[in-house]
Design brief:
With about 575 residues, the protein is α/β, with parallel strands linked by helices. Helices cover about 40% and strands about 20% of the residues. Helix 10 links the parallel strand 11 and strand 12. The longest helix has 23 residues, at about 275-295.
């Protein structure tokens, strides 16, 4: 059974949200946009004990508070609704259809089956308590009248949730009380006669080790004197164990050791955080598979909820993890802050959460938004190589290489840090259709965008294309601008940096250029700029030299058009 979407209202930081889900869904976004809240909502509903145990009830701080004066008692009702559906006819096994028949809602048009389960939380002013209730719904959102909670328990059995938090401590997870490890330890059972034989052998080994040290016998005798203060066994008050002598105790002490390439055997806890975190992930997968096989129905299909699985991992390991997750059994819902991770999953799997005021929005690439060729361009230029761009608030689309190198540095001088403000500069001159796939992707994912193009005919073509993607009420100047000059180098030349650029060229070369230009000032300027770039060692080096000069002159020396562009970027990123 597939969970096709989840809707949330007034739950923690989310006022209202409808999230479509795939077989693998990656939740990305800034902190406090709702990624963990979504996973917690799933955990709340699909964990057994919903509405019966205290842990299965909403509490004060689960209610969405709109401002610092709002109270949980006055907040709107919490509503979390899960929607399960067939993606093709007769997808659900007969056993599921028969046992959940009273809550299955067939679509008469398509023949596909649906189930809606909703949990609500509200404050009861008469009883002065927070109440939690659940209902299965029909297609009109009306509650179904059921005899008992059998359908709820069956659904939780057919769609079990396995949850892995971002806070993973290998010492605890592989300890006797670890939520996953403990299930394996408890499953170790030996026949009584075999257990007795092993414990007898362990007693012998223990006695041999202890008796080899005379000093230990003195320790035993001294501690035994405590018998005068504490009631102890009269004949054998103190026992030393070098190793556990009961199978029960020994099982609880099982440790994981890893062997290095040189053969050294070390406890898992002695390895780095990355290795420990990866081991917990693999333990989680093993737990889900074994638990599913042993404790659930053969038709059960799990949901695996993983919070930041990339924590502590090396980039190469994270990229491997992206492929690994696709192969894990069950439906996966993952929150992540890693560009390396999303570089290994389909861009259609990504859900970007972002805030607009108090509203939580979902950005995603729906099927058909990008053609195959456009998708290839986005994958090649962004997802596969610069996945971190998908986490940016704003994309600054620039036409050339110099723009790409200069704009982040100019932003720093103007007080707008690329990292702090969360904007990324993308060069579009080598992208099909004048960079239009980038604009489509930005709009679909809810990423703000702004284009800076040259002032020549080719640059005007860029902004004309950008004009086709304006929202209602937007002006072209809100999203794109052409430089007054033919390119950014000429823009600086025309705004007081002409002598600086000219002096980068040797006098002999200047003389030859003057002769070649034969009085054509436009041609001479173009040749001098080209020569300066070559003399600097290329456009990246030229950009660094120019930025050094701008720094010495101050931010006011930056051409006005570029200052205005950064003012607009500041608005778009919400700084």
């Amino acid at each position: 059974m597939k969970l096709v979407d989840i809707s949330i209202e007034n739950f923690r930081g989310i006022k209202k949200l409808l999230l479509p889900l795939d077989e693998l869904t990656i939740l990305i976004g800034e902190n406090n946009t709702g990624k963990s809240t979504i996973l917690e909502a799933l955990k709340f509903i699909l964990t057994r004990g919903l509405g019966t145990r205290r842990s299965g009830r909403f509490r004060e701080y689960d209610f969405h508070l709109t401002d610092d004066t709002a109270t949980p008692q006055e907040s709107g009702e919490i509503k979390i609704k899960l929607h399960f559906a067939e993606l093709q006819e007769d997808e659900w096994p007969d056993s599921i259809v028969q046992q959940l028949s009273e809550v299955i809602q067939p679509d008469m048009g398509t023949g596909l089956n649906h189930i809606w389960l909703q949990v609500e939380g509200r404050f009861n002013p008469d009883a002065e308590i927070f109440e939690t209730k659940w209902d299965f719904l029909n297609s009109s959102d009306a509650a179904l009248v059921l005899k008992n909670a059998t359908a709820l328990h069956l659904l939780q059995r057919f769609v079990p949730l396995f949850y892995l938090s971002a806070l993973r401590d290998a010492t605890q997870e592989f300890g006797q009380r670890g939520q996953f490890w403990n299930s394996f330890l408890k499953s170790i059972q030996l026949p009584d006669d075999e257990r007795a034989n092993l414990e007898e052998m362990l007693q012998t080994v223990n006695s041999t080790v202890i008796e080899s040290n005379e000093g230990l016998n003195q320790v035993i005798q001294q501690i035994a004197n405590a018998n005068c203060l504490v009631s102890l066994d009269a004949s054998d008050p103190v026992i030393l164990e070098a190793i556990p002598t009961r199978i029960f105790d020994m099982v609880g002490k099982i440790q994981v050791f890893l062997k290095s390439p040189l053969g050294a055997k070390l406890p898992l806890q002695r390895y780095g955080e990355g290795t420990q975190s990866l081991a917990v992930l693999l333990l989680f997968q093993a737990f889900a598979e074994v638990n599913l096989a042993e404790a659930y129905d053969q038709d059960s299909s799990p949901i695996l909820a993983l919070e930041e699985p990339e924590a502590h991992l090396h980039p190469s390991a994270i990229r491997t993890l992206g492929q690994f997750m696709k192969d894990m059994s069950g439906q996966k819902i993952v929150s992540s802050h890693s560009g390396d991770l999303i570089s290994r999953v389909s861009i259609h799997s990504i859900r970007r959460l972002y805030k607009e005021g108090d509203e939580t929005k979902i950005g995603m690439i729906h099927s058909g938004v990008l053609s195959d060729r456009e998708l290839q361009a986005v994958d090649y230029n962004i997802r596969l190589t610069r996945g971190a761009y998908l986490f940016s608030r704003c994309w600054v689309l620039v036409e050339g290489e110099s723009d790409f190198h200069l704009m982040p540095l100019l932003g720093e001088i103007l007080g707008l840090s690329q990292d702090r403000a969360s904007f990324s500069v993308l060069e579009i001159s080598q992208v099909i259709d004048k960079g239009e796939p980038f604009i489509k992707t930005a709009k679909a994912l809810g990423i703000q965008w702004f284009m800076m193009a040259d002032g020549d005919p080719a640059g005007i073509d860029y902004t004309n294309r950008a004009n086709n993607y304006l929202e209602s009420g937007e002006l072209l100047s809100d999203r794109a601008v052409n430089l007054p000059s033919v390119d950014i180098e000429h823009e600086f030349w025309n705004n007081g940096f002409d002598n600086f650029i000219k002096n980068m060229v040797s006098h002999s070369r200047q003389t030859r250029i003057s002769t070649e230009a034969a009085g054509d000032s436009v041609k001479e300027t173009k040749l001098l700029i080209k020569a300066a770039i070559k003399a600097a060692g290329g456009k990246p080096a030229f950009a660094r030299s120019l930025i050094g000069e701008v720094n010495s002159r101050g931010s006011a020396s930056i051409p006005t058009v570029i200052q205005n562009i950064f003012a607009r970027i500041t608005q778009l990123v919400g700084e």
